[in-house]
Records
---
Amino acid sequence: MREFIQVAAITDLKNGSMKKIRAGGQDLLLARVGDRYYCMDAFCPHLGGDLSEGTLAGTILTCPLHHSQFDISDGHVLRWTDLAGIVLAAAKNQRPPRPLGTYPVKIEGKAVLVEK
Ligand code: FES
């Protein structure tokens, strides 16, 4: 059964920052963009890059390994690796693009809760 779990305080994250958290027995990533908080898988669906070491620009998260990009508002793929042409086609054939898992977040008082 899914439930909301407190994972942080709103003061733990500055605007535009990310923090690795653990909820429901899984490593996740919590991000703040403006006054909104987002929660997603901590590892890239391509080949498992540690997304906490990636970069966040608005809601666009870029993986540090092969630079796939995901919109953290819903996890959809914006770019699958930084490969191009036939090499990208082969990579997609071998490992088709998959969205980043995302999880609902809510704020209660000064607490950040994630549904997991
Ligand atoms: S592991 Fe993230 S793009 Fe390859």
---
Amino acid sequence: MTAMIRQPSPNFNERRFPLDMLVLHYTGMETGAAALERMCDPAASVSAHYMVWESGEIVQLVEEDKRAWHAGVSRWQGDEDLNSRSIGIEIVNGGHDWPLEDGRLPPYPEAQVQAVIALCKDILGRWDIPQTRIVGHSDIAPARKQDPGEHFPWVKLAREGIGLWPLQPGTGEATLASALEQIGYDIGDLPAATAAFQRRWRPARIDGVDDPETRSVARAVAALYSAG
Ligand SMILES: [Zn+2]
């Protein structure tokens, strides 16, 4: 069990579905302190189960068996009310709204990444969460959200058994839309779903365009998802 401090938030209620998802976010605010204050403010009506500081320190705000309020309107593999189904982790990072002076996204420090990995491993040890249901906020709300961002090291997490990462190009003739749907994306807004997919698995270019490389990677991820 990773060390953590508790700062209980009033922003939670009862789950309506079994817990079988893990949702990763960035805080997207100027500081972690501001994010923590907001998640404990009843007027804000937002929260998460955990927040992970840049230093790797972990704060627990909501008990895991309760429904925290982090996902908003979202959809994955046909399911909605993902707050009822998930544990939410907010990772302190300014993200797209608070870039560095040179315009780059603020990096995730290694100590923070290692703490996120340890926390996710703990959670996956306690709950039956399929690999295909470990998601970023942008995966489940592609038209609204960009977090945890294309700078989040998903590949490092995958190497630790948190989420799937394809090691070879995809094969077959599946269209991009059908591959994204097999993975779990809501393809109602296909360019948004495509951009969300690129942000996670092909971050070199996030333009929402159906190109051969995006298609190939999406087929590879879809194959992993249908296998496991
Ligand atoms: Zn989020």
